[in-house]
Design a protein that fits this description.
Elements (H helix, E strand, L loop, with lengths): L8 H10 L7 E2 L6 E5 L7 H11 L15 E4 L9 E2 L3 E4 L1 H9 L3 E5 L3 E5 L5 E4 L33
Antiparallel strand pairs: 1-2, 2-4, 3-5, 6-7, 7-8
Length: about 160
């Protein structure tokens, strides 16, 4: 239990039976970064926003290099059409390119690892890759020896959108 630690199953069942509601969160098992809130919320939690800003660094529209810190997070599979608020369905788009995606026939699909495949109104495809490859799943098998992993730098607070 957050702020307390592990609890026994009986206590967990008792607390769950009295909870007025639940919010589903998928977190990275090692870092605790929120990877998905499913369809429970449209807005991304701060930790997920930071994770995606570090991953993307810039607007993810082909040829655009505006910084992610001033961009908006866009659901690749539209939230209104049952897309989830999850790391593998979100990417940064600057305001002009977000409008272009929303108001024209440009489409985008997101592949594992944050790779975006854009299709222009004429059918031509473009692929954009994230600036930083961030693992979202732990490797399977025994741990390997090696140098300690560097931690991500602290990032300034997210913009209010």
């Amino acid at each position: 239990m957050e702020g307390y630690g592990p609890i026994d199953p009986e206590t967990a069942r008792d607390l769950a039976s009295r909870a007025p509601s639940f919010t589903r969160l998928l977190t990275h098992p090692e870092t605790g970064v929120i990877l998905s809130v499913g369809r429970d919320r449209y807005k991304t939690p701060k930790a997920m926003h930071r994770f995606l800003r570090l991953r993307d660094e810039t607007c993810r529209f082909p040829g655009c290099n505006r910084p992610a810190r001033g961009a908006e997070l866009d659901h690749s599979h539209d939230w209104g059409l049952l897309g989830e608020t999850a790391h593998d369905n979100l990417a940064h788009l600057c305001k002009p390119n977000h409008a272009l995606k929303t108001q024209t026939r440009w489409t985008v699909t997101q592949k594992p690892g944050g790779i975006l495949t854009w299709t222009s109104p004429t059918g031509r495809e473009f692929t954009t890759e994230p600036a930083t490859i961030l693992p979202t799943v732990l490797p399977t098998g025994p741990p390997t020896a090696g140098p300690p992993t560097a931690t991500a730098p602290d990032l300034p607070d997210d913009p209010p959108f």
